UniProtKB/TrEMBL annotation:
It comes from Billgrantia tianxiuensis. Monomer. The keyword Signal applies. This is DUF1571 domain-containing protein. The keyword Signal applies. GO terms for biological process: protein transport. Residues 115-206 form the MucB/RseB N-terminal domain. Keywords: Protein transport, Signal, Transport. SUPFAM superfamilies: Prokaryotic lipoproteins and lipoprotein localization factors.
Amino acid sequence: MLLLVLVAMSAPLAEDPIAASLARIDALQGYRLTLRSQGNGGEEVIRYSYQRPGYVRMDMETPYRGAVLIYRPDTGRVQLWPFGAPGRRAGLSLRPTNRLVRSSRGHRVDQSDVGTLLRNVQQVQRHGTARVLEPTELDGRPAQHVVVEAEPGRAVREVVRYDLWLDDETLFPLRVVSYDRRGERLESVRLENIDLDPDFPPDHFAP
């Protein structure tokens, strides 16, 4: 019995923690959270909502407080309300590639969901390694710290390393930090106030 306990304690939490996290997220119908991103362009704070098969809503807190973006996969367009919530006035209809609706690092609204983020991490993992460090806590929540690092000479969109902190129970990312080949931080993203499979109002993603 003691031997079985020791084996269980020393076994990896997941054979592939990134694939396990992605599988959990792919099983969700949607989620909402507060996203805090820090990079060379400063800080962005967004109240973010996602619903399958790809509906996205961003309510901006910083730097463009009050702006609202909604992406609908059925139209392939982003509706932008620069100064207020939808329903009060007509929004601008833009392509996802328009610079007005891209982040300071060039991220597109239609490629902003957590599943896409993890698939980007997997691209680095395919050309390198993933390892789980000692159990830790983030904001008082038990978490798995996973490091994904490309082999020398490899990079995916400048990124050669990701540090991820996954919620120990849900495997949902709580924080993701990316680094370039010089070891300099490209971006740090914190995901807070996470609500999985919420009941969105019927007009939450309406244009």
